[in-house]
């Protein structure tokens, strides 16, 4: 019971759809922010590259001629090696002649790939990928395999290849210079300019998939800038329109469909997002990436059983699919509470290094499952690995929704919180707060609710909430009017969208698993109201207790653990406050937790 180091969990839907991924430095958008951590752009690019690489692999080799021809190619390869490592010293004219000969012998792309590979050294991971790419006849960054590459590339026959070939149909190929101009404007941040260009193209070519897709992206950017749901909905409508156009390239259909589902989820239309993903899968039933995305969409709206079936079917087809593994492990851990069964799925999924698996949630729950099954050293190793990979701020601080650069320490003082004045005022009135809490402990009132985040190993722990996510609970405040009146004007607490204000009561025998809060954006304080012997709290590696009528202040994004080994109830009043270093803009725009 007294062992340390674990982490928190709750219902699958709550944990999967809270906010976006591990950093909140970028400006959040609106409500229902998605977990980012699914790397949707990477998934699509990866699929498009796979298609193009397969095309290259399927090509029949050219007739190599007789042995002398082969020897000439070997000779050319050797010359390229010498040129690349700098053994020869020559004037530019000679260099150009020799390079031309070798390029003609090996093919331009192979020559360039070999040169880049050899000249960059062979001791780093990137070089390994370069060599593999060279061996299979493609070039790293080959625009033919990457629809987002600008300009043109060259094939082995030196024939120019359009960088956005995989998302461009015959119609769009004819107007590609105009489309590229609009795309470039959007990439440079000229949203209105890009929007005008796309509008003109759509007016002239209503069946242009890229023009409609570009317009949808521009509208989404505008929605972000103006925080407008109307613009967001217009963006969604245009993504849907792309999917209905004739002669739609597969790569663009996947891009548009996934973007549509993403924006629908963001808007709070989870059911519609599921429908969109199902329509994509009907088009491309063999695309496992789409099935994985469907499973995530089910998780985000709490349809856990449907999500489970999706991931199981993916694993039936591809038993080594790490993305499906970690998500199935997540379900087993958070929904089924089958910790031992969840461990191999989470562990092997993370080890696969597939896009989307190096995510704090999966390290979070793997470590917790290991701890709860008595594998404490293994749990610690997972937390250390998570910190090394950057999914946690540190070994002790394992929050997932963070703003970089904020001061981080386990224990704080009232003064350091920046709210000493208000905290002192509440301390001076602690008996009023205590008395209203005790009155509401009456079971007939039924206002104290059992803790439901799966944090208790054992015991009875209940809470009575007055504010949550910056919103006042009017019904509960009517039952504690004096306390709520004392909170008026304490804006750093009552407006804290990433925190709560609540009573917390523990009966004797409670042990709260070691866990971490979800964000580093708040500072938590506890006011002691009824404090018997035997109650204590650990933050990181320091354990303290409470005192009547006084606050203790700490950062709950650090691991903490609670024991109540006394003989009577323990009652405290919890107040979360914004981290004092957050700006006003950040407080306004950060998504609620």
What fraction, in percent, of the residue positions are helical? 40-55%
The overall pLDDT, averaged over residues, is 81
Strand content: 5-15%
Uncertain spans, ≥5 residues at pLDDT below 50?
1-11, 18-46, 48-149
Query: Which class of secondary structure composition applies to the elements?
Result: alpha+beta
Total strands = 15
Task: Throw out a few tags for this protein.
single chain, 593 residues, alpha+beta, 26 helices, globular
Structure commentary:
- The chain is an alpha+beta fold.
- Strand 6 and strand 7 (471-472) form a beta hairpin.
- Helix 12 (250-267) runs parallel beside helix 14 (288-300).
Short description:
The chain is built from 26 helices and 15 strands. The chain is α+β, with helices and mostly antiparallel strands and 593 residues long.
Would you spell out the secondary-structure blueprint of this structure?
Layout: H1 12-17, H2 40-58, H3 67-85, H4 92-106, H5 108-119, H6 125-135, E1 152-154, E2 160-162, H7 170-174, H8 176-187, H9 191-204, H10 209-226, H11 229-243, H12 250-267, H13 270-283, H14 288-300, H15 304-317, H16 322-334, H17 339-351, H18 360-372, H19 376-388, E3 411-412, H20 414-417, H21 420-428, H22 430-439, E4 449-450, E5 456-458, E6 461-468, E7 471-472, H23 474-477, H24 481-487, H25 491-494, E8 500-506, E9 511-515, E10 522-530, E11 535-539, E12 542-544, E13 551-554, E14 560-564, E15 570-578, H26 584-589
Antiparallel strand pairs: 1-2, 3-13, 4-6, 5-9, 6-7, 6-8, 8-15, 9-14, 10-13, 10-15, 11-12, 11-14
């Amino acid at each position: 019971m007294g062992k340390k180091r674990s982490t928190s969990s709750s219902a699958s839907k709550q944990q999967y759809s809270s906010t976006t991924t591990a950093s909140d430095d970028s400006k959040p958008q609106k409500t229902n922010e998605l977990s980012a951590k699914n790397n949707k752009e990477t998934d699509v690019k990866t699929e498009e590259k796979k298609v193009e690489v397969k095309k290259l692999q399927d090509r029949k080799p050219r007739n190599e001629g007789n042995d002398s021809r082969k020897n000439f190619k070997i000779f050319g390869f050797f010359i390229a090696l010498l040129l690349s490592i700098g053994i020869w010293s020559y004037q530019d004219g000679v260099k150009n002649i020799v390079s031309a000969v070798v390029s003609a012998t090996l093919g331009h792309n192979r020559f360039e790939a070999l040169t880049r590979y050899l000249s960059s050294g062979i001791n780093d991971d990137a070089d390994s990928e370069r060599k593999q790419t060279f061996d299979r006849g493609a070039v790293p960054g080959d625009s033919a395999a990457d629809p987002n590459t600008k300009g043109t590339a060259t094939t082995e026959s030196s024939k120019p290849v359009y960088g956005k070939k995989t998302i461009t149909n015959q119609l769009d190929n004819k107007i590609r210079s105009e489309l590229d101009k609009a795309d470039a404007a959007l990439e440079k941040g000229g949203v209105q300019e890009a929007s005008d260009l796309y509008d003109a193209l759509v007016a002239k070519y209503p069946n242009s998939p890229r023009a409609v897709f570009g317009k949808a992206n521009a509208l989404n950017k505008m929605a972000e800038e103006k925080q407008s749901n109307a613009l967001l909905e217009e963006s969604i409508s245009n993504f849907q329109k792309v999917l209905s156009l004739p002669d739609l390239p597969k790569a663009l259909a996947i891009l548009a469909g996934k973007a549509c589902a993403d924006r629908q989820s963001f808007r709070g239309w989870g059911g519609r997002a599921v429908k969109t993903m199902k329509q994509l899968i009907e088009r491309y039933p063999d695309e496992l990436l789409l099935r994985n995305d469907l499973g995530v969409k089910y998780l985000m709206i709490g349809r856990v059983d449907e999500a489970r079936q999706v991931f199981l079917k993916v694993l039936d087809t591809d038993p080594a699919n790490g993305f499906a593994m970690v998500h199935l492990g997540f379900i087993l851990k958070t929904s089924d509470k089958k910790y031992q069964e969840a461990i191999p799925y989470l562990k092997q999924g993370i080890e696969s290094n597939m896009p989307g698996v190096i995510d704090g949630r999966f390290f979070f729950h793997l470590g917790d499952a290991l701890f709860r099954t008595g594998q404490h050293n293994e749990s610690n190793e997972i937390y250390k690995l998570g910190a090394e990979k950057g999914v946690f701020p540190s070994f002790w601080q394992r929050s997932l929704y963070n703003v970089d650069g904020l001061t981080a320490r386990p224990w704080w003082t009232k003064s350091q919180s920046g709210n000493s004045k208000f905290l002192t005022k509440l301390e001076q009135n602690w008996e009023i707060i205590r008395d209203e809490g005790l009155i509401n402990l009456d079971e007939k009132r039924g206002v104290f609710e059992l803790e439901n985040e799966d944090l208790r190993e054992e015991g009875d722990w209940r809470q009575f909430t007055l504010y949550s996510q910056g919103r006042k609970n009017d019904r509960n405040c009517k039952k504690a009017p004096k306390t709520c009146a004392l909170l008026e004007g304490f804006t750093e607490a009552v407006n804290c969208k990433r925190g709560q204000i609540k009573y917390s009561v523990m009966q004797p025998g409670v042990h709260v698993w070691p866990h971490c809060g979800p964000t580093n954006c708040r500072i938590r304080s506890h006011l002691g109201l009824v404090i018997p012997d035997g109650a204590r709290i650990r933050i990181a590696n320091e354990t303290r207790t409470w005192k009547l009528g006084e606050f203790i202040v700490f950062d709950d994004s650090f691991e903490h653990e609670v024991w109540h080994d006394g003989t009577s109830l323990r009652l405290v009043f919890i107040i979360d406050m914004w981290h004092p270093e957050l700006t006003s803009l950040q407080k306004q725009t950060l998504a609620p937790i």
